[in-house]
Design a protein that fits this description.
8 strands, Tetrahydropterin Synthase, Chain A, 3-stranded antiparallel sheet, about 300 residues, alpha+beta, single chain, about 20% strand, 4 domains
Length: about 300
């Protein structure tokens, strides 16, 4: 009798302790009775009916990630290789959602297989409508297309796609080399255009500087010529004034005006000799030549006097 009581107490304690269940934070336990869904247990210490209620599965409501590597073919028959990171989680903690997560798939392996194949198929279908040159620039468009296509499917499974990152998009080696050559040629073209523009600007600025220098030199030459002309005019005016005054004084002294012309002639010869700087100047220095020159100068003076 004592042994039977002990066995009974041991069994009772085992059943009692088995009725308490601890659920980890970020996890939900699904309870079934005779294989049928009954309820869910939230994180913490929970109580279940011993021997009747059974924990079917423990579902993590935390974010989960998986890496994908697959190949797609573009519209122009180029092979594209993708490496992606998928981030997903349970949609919410509603009862229907938890039931879908717990019973839609046999196990997590089948879920992962279906999830990966669905995403790969969606990306392949989109890439097949695009040309190879457009794929690299449409990274965000591919992600948005995948989310639009599979969000409803995942919701029916009880999951939600948090994020899809296309970390690497590559092509066949030959295509990569050709793309590198295209980029290099475009860079060379841009460099040549920049050099041409720089040379054009340099030439233009140089031409503008030369033109401005020519304008400045021309203005300076014009001003110098004007000043020289003014100087010559003033010199001639002074010479005329001096000759007039000298002539008046000669007339008052009853002297011949030709003496003035003779003096100018001798002064001219002296000026030529002093400033010839090695040049040869031929002058008729004879008496006849002097008389001829004096007569010509006097006749010019007399003609001027008659005109006045």
């Amino acid at each position: 009798m004592g042994l039977g009581l002990i066995i009974f107490l041991v069994v009772a304690l085992v059943i009692l302790f088995s009725s308490f269940v601890t659920v980890k934070q970020g996890t939900i336990a699904v309870i079934t009775i005779f294989g049928k869904y009954r309820r869910q247990l939230s994180p913490g210490l929970n109580f279940k009916i011993p021997l009747i209620e059974v924990i079917h599965s423990r579902i993590s409501i935390q974010n989960r990630s998986v890496e994908l590597s697959f190949q797609a073919v573009t519209q122009d028959q180029a092979n594209v290789y993708f490496k992606a990171m998928l981030l997903y989680s349970v949609l919410d903690q509603h009862e229907e959602t938890i039931k879908n997560v717990a019973f839609k798939f046999v196990d997590a392996t089948n879920l992962m297989q279906a999830l990966i194949r669905t995403i790969e198929g969606s990306i392949r279908a989109y890439v097949a409508t695009q040309k190879q040159a457009n794929v690299l620039a449409q990274r965000n468009e591919i992600v948005m297309h995948v989310k639009e296509q599979i969000d409803k499917v995942l919701e029916s499974w009880g999951y939600h796609l948090q994020d899809l990152q296309l970390n690497d998009i590559t092509f066949d080696e030959e295509i990569m080399r050709s793309m590198s050559r295209v980029v290099a040629s475009n860079n060379l073209k841009a460099a040549a255009e920049n050099e041409g523009q720089a040379l054009l600007i340099t030439k233009t600025k140089g031409a503008e500087a030369d033109g401005n220098a020519i304008k400045i030199a021309a203005a300076a030459e014009r001003e110098a010529a004007q000043l020289r002309g003014q100087g010559i005019a003033l010199f001639r005016a002074e010479v005329a004034h001096g000759m007039t005054k000298a002539a008046q004084e000669m007339e008052q002294a009853n002297l011949d005006i030709s003496v003035i012309l003779f003096t100018m002639w001798t002064e001219s010869i002296k000026q030529f000799a002093e400033n010839s700087d090695g040049n040869v100047i031929f002058l008729d220095g004879s008496t006849e030549g002097m008389n001829k020159t004096m007569k010509e100068m006097m006749s010019m003076q007399m003609a001027k006097n008659k005109d006045s």
